Amino acid sequence: MTVSDLLLRLRALLFRARVEEELEDEVEFHLAMARRKHLDAGRSEEEAGRLARLDFGRVGAVKEDCRGVRGIDLFETALQDIRYALRSFRRSPGFVFTVAGTIALGLGLNLALFTLFNAYVLSPISIRDRYSL
Amino acid sequence: MAKPSRLDLLQGTLDLLILRTLQPGDAMHGWAISERIRQLSDNVLQANQGSLYPALHRLEHQGWIKAEWGVSELGRRARFYRLTASGRKQLRQEADNWTRVAGAIGKVLELA
How far is Cα A10 from Cα A7, in angstroms, rounded to an integer? Predict the structure, then answer.
């Protein structure tokens, strides 16, 4: 991994919207130039646009490949998953309450029992006859 | 996941062509690079212009080319690419490599 790679990845991560906008502009510029070339060759407005897109190939696929180069899709997918999870939580609050309650209860019980176990078994007060206290 | 495009077989080749096109040192935008490659190859290399962009971005990540925004001849904002010092080195290596492989293949074809 080179320094430029690291910096570009970081930039893609921190300024996602901007990087995405730049990709959009770059592709848009190419299509505009191609359209102009076909217009200069005497094509109609509509035909020029069609030919420009045809030469370019599938715009969506190209953009996806460019995003792949950034190498932060793992992060982006994780972000999407988290958003999806939050949305489904909002849809079924009862479920969230039950799950959160179960976990809270489980953790609490665990902690309480361990505290007792720790006090009585693991680290009892070290004096000769502690029952004489 | 990235889907294989028509130019995938020529992936390394496209990188080499881009680096070579930028060799004179002028900053060029994607459209100009694509047109130059098409003209210089007598219209032979004109496959999917779109596949140029993932390649450009990949080269940028490798540090072989540098991108900056400028104003194009249309008065529009465009992304200009320029060869870096390490890109120049990479170009020499890859061009040598290509010549060697092409020469070797040529020999095999003649003999067969």
Answer: 5
Are A5 and B61 spatial neighbours (Cβ–Cβ below 8 Å)?
A: yes
Nearest to A66 among B6, B54, B72 (CB): B54
- Rounded to whole angstroms, how far apart are CA atoms B87 and B15? 11
Beta-carbon contacts below 8 Å between A and B: 90
Give this prediction's pTM: 0.72
Mutate to test the interface with A, among B34, B58, B61, B65 (most CBs of A within 10 A): B61
* Dihedral (Cα; A88, A92, A93, A98), 10-degree rounding: -100
Contact present, B41 and A50 (Cβ < 8 Å): no
- Answer for the pair B25, B103: CB distance below 8 angstroms, yes or no: no
Residues in A closer than 8 angstroms to B37, CB to CB, are none
Identify residue B111 by its one-letter amino acid code: L
As a whole number of angstroms, the longest Cα–Cα distance in chain B is 55
Radius of gyration of chain A (CA): 30
The residues in B 18-57 lying below 8 A from A, measured between CB atoms, are 29-31, 34, 46, 48-51, 53-54, 57
Kind of pairing, strands B65-71 and B28-29? unpaired
The complex scores an ipTM of 0.80
pLDDT of chain B along its 112 residues, tens only? 444 444 444 557 888 999 999 999 889 999 999 999 888 877 766 667 888 999 999 999 999 999 999 998 778 899 999 999 999 999 999 999 989 988 999 999 998 7
